[in-house]
Amino acid sequence: MNKEAKDIFNFKETSDACVKCGKCVPVCTIHQINPDETTSPRGFIDLLGAYQKGDLELDRNAKDIFESCFLCTNCVSVCPNLLATDMVIEEVRADIAEKYGISWFKRAFFFLLRNRTIMDIVMKLGFMFKTCALSVDAEGRGLKARFALPMIKKGRLLPSMAKTSFLNSYPEHITPKKQPKQKVAVFIGCLANYNYTTIGDSLVEILKKLEIDVFIPKKQLCCGAPAYFTGDTNTVEYLIRKNLDYFETFMDEYDAMIIPEATCSAMIKHDWEVFCKNNNHSELIPRIQKLLPKIHMATSWLHDNTNLKELLETKGKKFDDLVTYHDPCHARKVQGIYQEPRNLLAPNYPMVEMSDPNRCCGFGGVTMQSEKFYLAELAGKPKAAMIKDTKAKYVSAECSACRVQLSEAMNNSNVETIFKNPLELIAQALR
């Protein structure tokens, strides 16, 4: 072990608090597809305690185990001691990154997330030359790999690419003709900015209908979630500082910053503060805490602070298309948001619940979608089967990471259901 115990995050404290009751085991996403005690929450915790005591070397076997967690937080929600297994896994991944480094393609990706202008150019080039390696899915769900690429098998369904990003498609200020009832800023998230731009289009459309003043902050950067789940603490700190400095220049003027992505919302609302506490950036915590009351997932804020539901009931179109709702881990389990999007969809669409809407889809982060994609595939299969059983035309979730994972899982299982963000369905009902 390269580090002294005093220099290691206090994993032993969490390990000592675990009573080994086993309630976490049956709900654990990785344990459901790889039923081994080492890949269960109490197994992770026990091994981390041994690592801090010096009884476990952080070798490649331990690295493989700790990188197999999906960070779904199912274990946290059932733990009698509320042990934050996801947090300790995130912390040990920083140790892994320090010891073994971060793969070149991840470092390149995180570099792009730190540099918006370069990312814009790369994504523009990707759109122009996408047909060289990718074909458009006939159902409009994304792009399919024409042939096997590094860590991407032939036929894998990948996110769409937009000709112009959401942030570059709109003016910074969109002001209604009438006196605005409220003023909001929009944090769009990377996937909605570059790949699923109809999410942002739909959000703007809804806000216009509600006569709300919209500010689209053009200098916003990634929330930091991909780097955080991978252990790249330098990138996380950089993105938090840059975004925080920028947000502070305008947030006092707005009622809220709304985010149509569960992971981005949870990262800013929950993980920024956790990261700063665990990585000795205490000077940032008061600034983050001042910001938090204005950070909201889009459907939650629209549900609680506008008359959108009443508008949908009185003026919205009625559809016969069945909709089933999937609960993103970062929405229901981290933020307690699950009823609000359902309430906004119900006036215009017949809703049907799948057998376990709260089960993790298996996205799991950058590592799970690259080196460990076989695990993501295994986790996606049961979710695709649940969706198929509902016979729904649409499956909806306020999370583009879930969209990537579920679209691929449904593609592999020949499920014809189409994924839509709830905002896309809501905007469709208001047209």
UniProtKB/TrEMBL annotation:
Transmembrane segments: none annotated. It holds the Pfam family Fer4_8. This is Glycolate oxidase iron-sulfur subunit. Component of a complex that catalyzes the oxidation of glycolate to glyoxylate. One of its GO terms (molecular function) is glycolate dehydrogenase activity. Binds 2 [4Fe-4S] clusters. Its cofactor is [4Fe-4S] cluster. It catalyses: (R)-lactate + A = pyruvate + AH2; glycolate + A = glyoxylate + AH2. Keywords: 4Fe-4S, Electron transport, Iron, Iron-sulfur, Metal-binding, Oxidoreductase, Repeat, Transport. Residues 9-38 form the 4Fe-4S ferredoxin-type domain. It comes from Sulfurovum sp. enrichment culture clone C5. PANTHER family: GLYCOLATE OXIDASE IRON-SULFUR SUBUNIT (PTHR32479). It is an enzyme of class 1 (oxidoreductase). Its EC number is 1.1.99.14. InterPro entries: 4Fe4S_Fe-S-bd (IPR017896), 4Fe4S_Fe_S_CS (IPR017900), Cys_rich_dom (IPR004017), Glc_ox_4Fe-4S (IPR012257), Helical_ferredxn (IPR009051).
